[in-house]
Backbone:
């Protein structure tokens, strides 16, 4: 392939790609994102290829492994174009039927469609499914349409047209102004306005500058950056090059965690492809602008998502944050001006350039513009990635899109903002989602993790979990974080294990204040948030653990016991068979009893006891009733 | 000769471009407690004891004085209820490691820190990094370094190097606020060169 | 891993000290652990003090200074998996294998690690063994799956 040397050539090339593609040719898009692969997407793709070959259709049908469209709960997902028929939970066995029915006969396979659990209605198209219908998908929408390894697919969907527009139709200053006007705020952490950060670097005296993509995505339970990088890597590259142009940087870095091998592979390939087309390199599109991109893999340290630690890691050193009080957009990588933005922030840039800041600012609230991708996980029916306009209520996300809480349980809280975010309780479900709104509620936007918790989730345990995570990930450089979190973790563990004492809450508050006020970097400064927010909304749970040795959510292992209600046990023997440590005594027609000494509280019996008997219960904060005497255990079944 | 002035605890103090608040205070004879600072070494900002309150352009914030550059017109307070409370917590956290360290005991008295506030830890090291940084920055011997991260972070001598250089140097020993450093070296030495029975 | 291979990897990164982490990652992914010889060699070639290499090799989670077992078991303890019971899965694996996270058993059969998010939250709790993801696991199923490995 020869280089593309001007916007006109880019247009011609794009037309060439489109001309070769008949829009009526059936195209089968199969999600090859991590979630769907784990549910067997690989086998489905192989089955499609085999079946298409076997039926002699290879010349007439296109198959694509695409990025994640977000509905991971129901994967593997298959969408068939041009009709846009959406099949969920597809297995290799379904493939011959799809080929015969849908591809050849143009008939829909009913049983693979989405069925509304409430109305029983089927949805043929993606856009008819409530999960999608209530979203506004601007950034992630192309994931399912693009073969994530094909630059031509990206070009066919107008890819790199924003770059052409910026480089040859706008001055660097105009690009900056457009981004500033859009009020695009960072999608990775603090929500800092991107345009202002860019301007600082642009105006810095030092000539050599850098632009950097933060693809460290360390928040457990968040995978939107991964989906974008794996599914649509060119959109991030395009944003990055435009950013480089705006601030005068000729080198870009992508810091991506090595735990995401497919993301590393796809972005590396994308850079090669863009280089081969002349969209990266010298004199891009004849504009005279040069730009190169380097991929750097993170070696597994959450703190390296922090801007100064990330830059230290890029320099090949231990990822400890820098103590300096100079912003990294002035003195960052190699002490030079460096603009660091999150994956999703960069992916928004081409949209803003193409459609304009005015379009962008129509979406969202006063302080938060555009859409945001959230990863909706935990105790929720529709786990997955959702892209929504800022300003949507938590309730709409969780109930309209997420489909509510499974198994008829009650919603308790939603945790946003990653490990150092906070929990928002049920009475604030009407909260509008935005940077400032979430901060006011004691949480934060963070990178967009949204973990839903139900009545079975213990909020003290949630705080312990996050503090444990952060203790493990603290770099260890400064005392309030390293030592403070260590002690907080010990106290919280004591509380959840029934060893809490009076004064523990106050000592936690003392430690939390020191960490928040005196830590060196934002990891330590925000680490106490999960404690503060759970204490603010669920103080009674802390007190129950400490004073009554009771876990109100019946979740803390050391504070609960499993007990079989002798009146309800029907001696079906399932629990006794499943118990991994043989702690359940019983037999045919004999009421079962848990040996509390042997029980490890794994909860297996509770789960396997058939719902119609519902004999296993959890007890906390009170003694377990004595087992009924052996001679009373026989069940005499009434004969019919 | 000073380039500009700032105010520390109500005193007008002259400073030169590039100096930190701590340096400015020290020259003016105003005491700020430090644990990880050493004038021959790059600022580390690890212990956070030297935290102070600064007021600039109408906003107050807490910063560590050993790193924060002195600016013209800055108003600095080296003590307040909040600062004292944070220093007390830091001391109590460190005394979980080194309850008998002389500098910690002295500071604990000043700030009312209770050495038994938190559960004791097995390692005496308070991770001030003085030994590591001195060996690296001043002596350029690289005989001692940090390993691991977070709560598992420890110092570690490289036996091959330590065997060659440490016995003749030992300059880091007196820097250590605890008794840990020397003990670790002795251990390394004995492991690297077990005396033949 | 022999010195020549290590040198090749270093050369691929133009012997740049800033590529230190990338070089160690390459060695780790080929060899599955970093021997002292490998670290020393990298230090010599890049002229980086050993103290710094040692800190890097112990700071980042991706590196291992001991040989790994034949099967690498990763238990996701990300938030989504946690609220869906990952702790119980981890306890089961600890019981079955007799090792703690970060350890390898005496027969070099299993290495156990906890990981923070595998990006398959819809399938939580998740166990990954040698790169294959097992979703929606229960303690019982986990014990059964582990039996399939030799
Ligand atoms: C401990 C810590 C971890 C972070 N991890 C990430 C991350 O994984 N991805 C990310 O984009 N930002 C992360 N951030 C935020 C970054 O420091 C930085 O604010 C962000 O990348 C800037 O980009 P944005 O303005 O586009 O959000 C982290 C911050 C801290 C303190
Ligand atoms: S706050 Fe924590 S992570 Fe940040 S520098 Fe201090 S010890 Fe390291
Ligand atoms: S051994 Fe002593 S000098 Fe070295 S880091 Fe620990 S406390 Fe500081
Ligand atoms: S002396 Fe300033 S942080 Fe230690």
Residues:
């Amino acid at each position: 392939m020869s280089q593309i040397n001007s916007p006109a050539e880019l247009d011609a090339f794009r037309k060439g790609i489109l001309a070769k593609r008949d829009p009526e040719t059936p195209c089968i898009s199969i999600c090859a994102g991590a979630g769907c692969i784990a549910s067997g997407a690989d086998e489905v793709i192989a089955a499609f290829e085999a079946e298409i070959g076997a039926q002699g259709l290879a010349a007439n049908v296109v198959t694509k492994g695409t990025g994640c469209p977000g509905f991971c709960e129901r994967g593997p997902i298959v969408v068939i174009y041009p009709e846009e028929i959406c099949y969920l939970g597809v297995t290799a066995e379904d493939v011959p039927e799809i080929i015969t029915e849908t591809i050849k006969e143009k008939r829909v396979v009913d049983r693979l469609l989405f069925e509304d659990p409430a109305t029983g209605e089927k949805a043929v198209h993606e856009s008819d499914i409530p999960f999608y219908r209530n979203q506004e998908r601007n950034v992630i929408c192309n994931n399912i349409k693009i073969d994530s390894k094909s630059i031509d697919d990206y070009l066919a969907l107008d890819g790199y047209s924003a770059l052409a527009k910026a480089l040859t139709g706008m001055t660097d200053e105009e690009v900056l102004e457009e981004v500033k006007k859009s009020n695009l705020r960072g999608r990775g952490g603090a929500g800092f306005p991107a345009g202002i950060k860019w301007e600082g670097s642009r105006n810095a005296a030092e000539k050599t500058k850098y632009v950097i993509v933060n693809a460290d995505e360390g928040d457990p339970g968040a995978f939107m950056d991964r989906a974008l990088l794996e599914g649509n890597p060119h959109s991030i590259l395009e944003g990055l090059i435009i950013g480089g142009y705006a601030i005068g940087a000729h080198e870009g870095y992508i810091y991506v965690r090595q735990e995401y091998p497919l993301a590393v592979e796809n972005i590396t390939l994308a850079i090669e492809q863009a280089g081969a087309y002349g969209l990266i390199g010298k004199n891009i599109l004849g504009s005279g602008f040069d730009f190169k991109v380097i991929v750097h893999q993170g070696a597994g340290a959450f703190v390296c998502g922090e801007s100064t630690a990330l830059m230290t890691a890029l320099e090949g050193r231990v990822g400890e944050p820098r103590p300096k009080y100079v912003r990294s957009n002035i003195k960052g990588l190699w002490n030079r001006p460096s603009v660091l933005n999150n994956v999703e922030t960069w992916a928004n840039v081409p949209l803003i350039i193409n459609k304009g800041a005015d379009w962008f600012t129509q979406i969202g609230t006063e302080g938060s513009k555009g859409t945001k991708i959230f990863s909706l996980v935990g105790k929720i029916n529709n786990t997955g990635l959702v892209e929504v306009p800022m300003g949507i209520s938590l309730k709409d996300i969780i109930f309209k899109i997420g489909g509510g809480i499974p198994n008829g349980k009650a919603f308790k809280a939603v945790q946003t903002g990653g490990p150092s975010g906070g929990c928002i309780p049920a009475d604030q479900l009407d909260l509008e989602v935005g940077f400032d709104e979430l901060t006011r509620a004691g949480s934060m936007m963070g990178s967009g993790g949204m973990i839903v918790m139900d009545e079975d989730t213990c909020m003290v345990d949630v705080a312990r979990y996050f503090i444990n995570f952060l203790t493990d990930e603290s770099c260890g450089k400064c005392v309030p974080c390293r030592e403070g979190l260590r002690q907080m973790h010990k106290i919280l563990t004591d509380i959840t294990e029934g060893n809490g004492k009076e004064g523990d809450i106050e000592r936690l508050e003392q430690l939390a204040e020191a960490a928040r006020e005196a830590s060196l970097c934002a990891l330590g400064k925000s680490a106490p948030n999960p404690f503060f927010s759970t204490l603010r909304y669920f103080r009674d749970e802390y007190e129950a653990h400490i004073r009554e040795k009771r876990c109100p959510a019946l979740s803390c292992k050391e504070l609960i016991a499993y007990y079989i209600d002798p009146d309800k046990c029907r001696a079906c023997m399932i629990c006794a068979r499943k118990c991994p440590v043989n702690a359940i005594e019983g037999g045919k027609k004999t009421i079962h009893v848990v040996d509390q000494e042997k029980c490890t509280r794994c909860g297996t019996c509770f789960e396997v006891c058939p719902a119609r008997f519902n004999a296993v219960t959890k007890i906390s904060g009170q003694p377990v009733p004595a087992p009924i005497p052996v001679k009373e255990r026989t069940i005499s079944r009434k004969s019919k | 000769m000073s380039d500009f002035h700032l105010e520390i605890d109500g005193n007008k103090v002259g400073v030169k471009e590039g100096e930190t608040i701590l340096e400015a205070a020290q020259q003016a004879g105003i005491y700020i407690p430090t644990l990880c600072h050493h004038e021959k070494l790059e600022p580390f900002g690890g212990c956070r004891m030297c935290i102070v309150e600064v007021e600039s352009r109408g906003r107050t914030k807490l910063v560590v004085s050993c790193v924060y550059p002195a600016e013209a017109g800055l108003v600095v307070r080296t003590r307040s209820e909040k600062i004292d409370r944070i220093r007390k917590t830091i001391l109590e956290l460190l005394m979980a490691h080194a309850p008998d360290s002389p500098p910690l005991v002295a500071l604990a008295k000043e700030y009312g820190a209770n050495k038994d506030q938190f559960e004791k830890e097995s390692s005496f090291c308070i991770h001030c990094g003085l030994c590591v940084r001195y060996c690296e920055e001043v002596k350029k011997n690289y005989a001692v370094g940090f390993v691991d991260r977070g709560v598992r972070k420890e110092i570690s001598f490289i036996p091959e190097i330590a065997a060659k250089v440490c016995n003749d140097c030992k300059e880091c020993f007196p820097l250590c606020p605890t008794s840990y450093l020397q003990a670790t070296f002795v251990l390394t030495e004995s492991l690297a060169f077990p005396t033949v029975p | 891993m022999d010195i020549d291979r290590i040198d090749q990897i270093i050369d691929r990164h133009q012997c740049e000290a800033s590529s230190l982490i990338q070089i160690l990652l390459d060695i780790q992914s080929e060899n599955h652990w970093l021997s002292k010889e490998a670290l020393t060699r990298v230090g010599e070639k890049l002229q980086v003090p050993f103290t710094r290499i040692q800190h890097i090799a112990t700071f980042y989670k991706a590196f291992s200074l001991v040989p790994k077992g034949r099967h690498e078991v990763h238990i996701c303890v990300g938030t989504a998996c946690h609220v869906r019971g990952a702790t119980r899965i981890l306890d089961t694996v600890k019981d079955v294998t007799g090792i703690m996270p970060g350890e390898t058993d005496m027969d070099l059969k299993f290495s156990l690690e906890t990981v923070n998010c595998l990006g398959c939250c819809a399938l939580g709790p998740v166990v990954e063994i040698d790169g294959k993801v097992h979703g929606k696991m229960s303690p019982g199923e986990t014990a059964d799956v582990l039996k399939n490995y030799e």
